[in-house]
Amino acid sequence: MTAATARRILTQLRHDPRTVALLLVVPTALMVLLRYVLDSAVGFSVVAPALLGVFPFTIMFLLTSVSTLRERTGGTLERLMALPLGKLDLLGGYALAFGAVAVVQVVLATGVSVLWLGLSVAGPLWALLLITVLDALLGTALGLLVSAFARTEFQAVQFMPVVVLPQILLCGLFVPRDSMSRLLNALSDVLPLSYAVDALTHVTHFAEVDGTLVRNMLIVAGCAGLALLIGAATLRRRTP
């Protein structure tokens, strides 16, 4: 059931070239734009690791939340749940489908950043790709969770300032987390995007894969799994 759901979502995406372009082209185009705005490979290597986490996270959150809500309001979700299909099967199918897209998105953006734009990576490239994929999956899981609480697509987008923007502001992109006040630092410690950005920064600056890096990756993966479980528990057949 999970695989069948994933195939259905991927088939729908294949017939929607604008969404595919948004998913695959926009993150890479934004990285290219950033590189030439900074006009420095050194400056790009400082900022780019965090944005390799922020861009896929944000785009996957928006796409997943709106797509899932559209299926509920259109009655597709209600028809699917009339079948012997568990809630985790349904959300797992969505996560599998969007996760496959996220892998392509991340490989493209990371490959262009490293091979063309001059992003310096001290650690193994597989670790950089894995962290970025986990971050995109986190955005997917949170989008699925948020879709359970929205009644319209506009409301789903309105969750972005609540769920996404605080994480971007507190993840260390603009100000190092250890330079923040005690309260803001404590808030950043409970937001999963902070650990994704920390992991991406670590793998671009240090060659070794240490316990801290592994811990950060496990936290991001755990938060994505927890969001899927909560989303399954709160999933409704249709929006009233």
Can you describe this structure?
The chain is an all-alpha fold. Helices cover 78% and strands 0% of the residues. It contains 13 helices and no strands. The protein has helices at 2-14, 17-24, 26-38, 41-73, 76-81, 87-115, 125-147, 153-158, 160-163, 165-170, 182-189, 192-205, 211-234. It is globular, with a radius of gyration of 18 Å. The model has no long low-confidence stretch (mean pLDDT 83). Residues 10-238 form the ABC transmembrane type-2 domain. InterPro entries: ABC-2_transporter_component (IPR051449), ABC2_TM (IPR013525), ABC2_TM_bact-type (IPR047817), ABC_2_transport (IPR000412). It comes from Amycolatopsis panacis. The chain crosses the membrane at residues 20-38, 44-69, 90-119, 125-149, 156-175, 217-235.
* Assembly category: single chain
Helix content: over 70%
Number of domains: 1
The number of helical segments is: 13
User: What's the shape?
Assistant: globular
Largest sheet properties: none
Distance between the termini: 26 Å
Order of helices and strands: HHHHHHHHHHHHH
Structural class: mainly alpha
Strand elements, count:
0
Radius of gyration: 18 Å
* Contiguous runs where pLDDT drops below 50 for at least 5 residues: none
Mean pLDDT: 83
Strand content: under 5%
